[in-house]
Amino acid sequence: MFSDANYQPGVLDEKHDVITDETKAKRVWAGLKKKISPDWQQRFYKAYLSELPESFQHLFDFARYAFDNPDGVETNYGHASVMAISKIAHSVDRERHRMKAFIRFQETADGIFYAPIEPDYNVLPLISVFFKNRYADQQWIIYDVKRKYGLFYDLEKVEEITFDIVSEIQQSGISLPSGTLHQKEELYGLLWNDYFKNTNIPARKNMKLHIQHVPKRYWKYLTEKQP
Amino acid sequence: MSDRIRKKLAILADAAKYDVSCSSSGSNRKNTNKGLGDSSASGICHTYTEDGRCVSLLKILLTNHCIYDCAFCVSRKSNDVQRAAFTVEEVVDLTMNFYRRNYIEGLFLSSGIFKNADFTMERLVRIVKKLRLEHKFNGYIHLKTIPGASQELLTEAGLYADRMSINLEMPTEAGLKLLAPDKSHEDVKKPLDFIQNSIVRYKEEKKILRHSPKFVPAGQSTQMVIGATPETDMEIMYSADAYYKNYDLKRVYYSGYIPISYDSRMPIIGSQPPLLRENRLYQTDWLMRFYGFDVSEILNPKNPHLDIDIDPKLAWALRNMEYFPIDVNTADYKMILRVPGIGVGSAKKIVEARKFGKLRSDQLQRIGISWNRAKHFIRCADSIFQLNSPDAFKVKSSILTKGNSKYLKIPQNQLTLF
């Protein structure tokens, strides 16, 4: 089972199209909620947000396995799909956690804190509440450059947004055009870079560990990693 | 203006970096006043320095002026370094603005002792109070307890900080006396004890009055410097164990000494910090806190030092082969946890999964145990029957030839004795 985007026809395969039907989907989800624990409902959702090609088959097999058996089978880690979903959900969770860590806001001239990101998985829905609670007293935008949508918090609620004019955001890296930034933004960026350098202990240098914790694909948007 | 603050930050971040604690976990402060920030229970590392250490908090000294002359400390009175001091406003402004940009989880504020203990502690308290009350800051605050500060000031600090810590500096009293004759572990025990008792008291109150204030909700921690003085691993870990037990500490940090002085009592400048030893001590610490080991099982007069070539869990297993192999399909959870190559997560999964049928080796590998290690110590549904129990020496050499330690490439300044 594949999403349309990932489908590659095989020589001997017969193709069967599954068209998303909201009513049926809701019915299955309601049924699944009765069979599996809230923790596993979350994992199921997270595995879906991974957008990984193989995740769809595992989600399907897992749902069937849960429906066909008495309650509680989701903890059978010996079952291939249970273990697969556990692992995929774990990866998505890690990405969610990384975004909590690696998102870097820049204050714009009109006082909105803006952060572009390119997460491996579609984790925006998983971090919305976290940032709303944390930055309750500032307006902010977190924009997924890869998936072309973002979250905007207006001091009251979080809304999904898309930018009409793509050129408004610079696709290539972290910095916004200097004219659009708050006058103190550059100073705080510099201070943070100073801090990052001075809190390092050169005698303990360990680049392998550094890169393991801060993989290079995230550097583009990290203030402390800008030259 | 901006040059001055940049210079101060450079000096006072540099002076604070030898305090290794960076943890921002264990608190539960909620953003209920529509202010800035909350404390994530699990803690967040926002970045990592090139030495691979986590950066979670803005870790700075209020000042590196100090009236003490402790040989191991970079800010000692007699050391010829640039001195600086932040104003209260500067610390508040940096904390708020770093936090707003999601650079940090909060503030770790320490200080050299200027004038006297109370004078220093009062300044620290003034900063956290301002952050909490005037700026509605709900992020994480780790505050240093200044030895000798009055109980009134400590109580006030505890009402605004999430975690407080006070460093033992050296693992034993004798070691401390050697390098810092003015200091003693008694000066550390007193405030540790006072704050611990207050934590317990406030928790009790909270059971009765829901709105009674939080007091150091993330608990206390301490740090000792390793390798500056000649303690054995056993002395270090027995000391840590005693502090965990007596003061209910959340963490003990072990900081490999980085030579910063030409003092002849300590390793010379340029010698390699004992990173592998530090790692082994942390592994032991984890075994004590999460794996149900008693410190005396890992270190005792017969084995006063941790092995260099293998980790302490494997070392324990090899010394106690009579317990192995165990059958993962029937063994107690506590015993599965003791198998080298099986961590807490995998052990829990095994116990869940075996309710559905006997587990085979392929399932165990998919669950994520380190098979090359664990296979010598376990039996499962498809294990081949073996007459002899495994031999410790053979197991060790088999594991060592297959694995490659990340530390073998790093030159060691520690030699094994035998």
Explain the overall architecture:
The complex is a heterodimer of chains A (227) and B (418). Chain A is of the alpha+beta class and 227 residues long. Chain A folds into two domains: 4-97, no CATH class; 103-225, no CATH class. Helix content of chain A is 42%, strand content 9%. Chain A contains seven helices and five strands. Chain A has helices spanning 22-35, 38-49, 55-68, 80-102, 124-134, 185-198, 207-213; strands at residues 106-107, 113-117, 140-144, 149-153, 158-161. In chain A, helix 5 links the parallel strand 2 (113-117) and strand 3. The longest helix of chain A has 23 residues, at 80-102. Chain A is globular and about 60 Å long. Chain B folds into two domains: 2-223, TIM Barrel; 320-402, no CATH class. Chain B has helices spanning 2-16, 88-100, 117-134, 151-160, 173-179, 185-208, 233-247, 275-290, 295-298, 312-319, 333-336, 344-353, 361-367, 371-374, 392-402, and strands at 47-48, 54-55, 57-61, 106-110, 140-144, 163-165, 220-226, 251-256, 326-327, 378-379. In chain B, the strands form three sheets. Chain B has a six-stranded parallel beta sheet. A two-stranded antiparallel sheet of chain B has the order 1-2. The longest helix of chain B has 24 residues, at 185-208. The chains are: A alpha+beta (227), B alpha/beta (418). Chains A and B meet through helix 4, strand 1, helix 5, helix 6 and helix 7 of A and helix 1, strand 1, strand 2, helix 2 and helix 12 of B.
